[in-house]
Specification:
The chain contains 10 helices and 5 strands, in the order H-E-H-E-E-E-H-H-E-H-H-H-H-H-H. It is α+β, with helices and mostly antiparallel strands. The chain folds into 2 domains: 124 residues, Beta Polymerase, domain 2, CATH 3.30.460; 92 residues, no CATH class.
Length: 229
């Protein structure tokens, strides 16, 4: 990580949360602490030829941050990882700008989530099937998170709000992670969740498209105020 990236994370982070197993309610004694953040680069940094980074890896282990504009763009596309950041129950740092971002989080939601959550889960399932073909056994942690992602997507489409803490499914999902659930049962569960998402997509309370204008207004406001930082 270069000096500018470290300074942006240190001095301009507006929101920092814990995601991963600790936020999902699936932590075990050996679980890492996965941190994700949003930093708002001061507008003058965009005036020269060299632009600020769109993301920064570090400086802590398992820490990753996005610049505000990049974060908002991904959130508008219903990126599951980004939406989890906005709804994580484990907030470590939030500035006034970060609070504005959280207050506007509903503007990012739309039925696009049907496509993205299913797409991410399907990609994970193909990797799992590849492990089965090549190694005779999947990576059970990946299987668990595929099912978790589908369950969260179904909840989002049904209720209009992301589900991060899946503690109600903890025992069943951890049994999957330990390799204690048969493959036929896993395939059946996956099919059930996917079909439920298709059904929920047609009657979801979510709007067809996110409120891009509201998000852009927030971004422009933050850029203008950053002239004084």
């Amino acid at each position: 990580m270069d000096e500018l990236g470290e300074r942006l994370v240190r001095d301009h982070t507006v929101l920092s949360v814990v995601v991963g197993s600790r936020a999902y309610g699936l932590a075990t004694p050996g679980s890492d602490t996965d941190r994700r953040g949003v930093f708002a680069a001061p507008a003058p940094l965009y005036w020269g030829f060299d632009k600020p980074p769109t993301h920064v890896d570090g400086p802590l282990d398992e820490q990753f941050s996005w610049e505000l504009e990049r974060f908002c763009g991904l959130a508008l596309d219903a990126n599951p990882t980004i939406l989890e950041c906005l709804w994580s129950p484990l907030v470590e740092r939030v500035t006034p700008v970060g609070r504005e971002l959280l207050d506007a989080r509903g503007a990012f939601l739309s039925r696009r989530a049907h496509r993205t959550f299913l797409g991410y889960a399907d990609a994970q399932f193909r990797k799992v099937e590849g492990d089965l073909r090549n190694h005779g056994e999947p990576r059970w942690k990946h299987v668990m998170h595929m099912l978790r992602l589908l369950a969260c997507g179904r909840h989002l489409l049904d209720h209009g709000e992301p589900l991060v803490d899946v503690g109600g499914l903890r025992d069943r999902l951890l049994a999957v992670r330990r390799g204690e659930v048969g493959w036929d049962e896993i395939r059946s569960w996956r099919s059930e969740l996917s079909a439920g998402m298709d059904e929920a997509g047609d009657r979801s309370p979510l709007p067809a498209e996110p409120d891009r204008a509201r998000v852009e207004s927030l971004l422009i406001s933050v850029r203008r105020r950053s002239l004084e930082w």
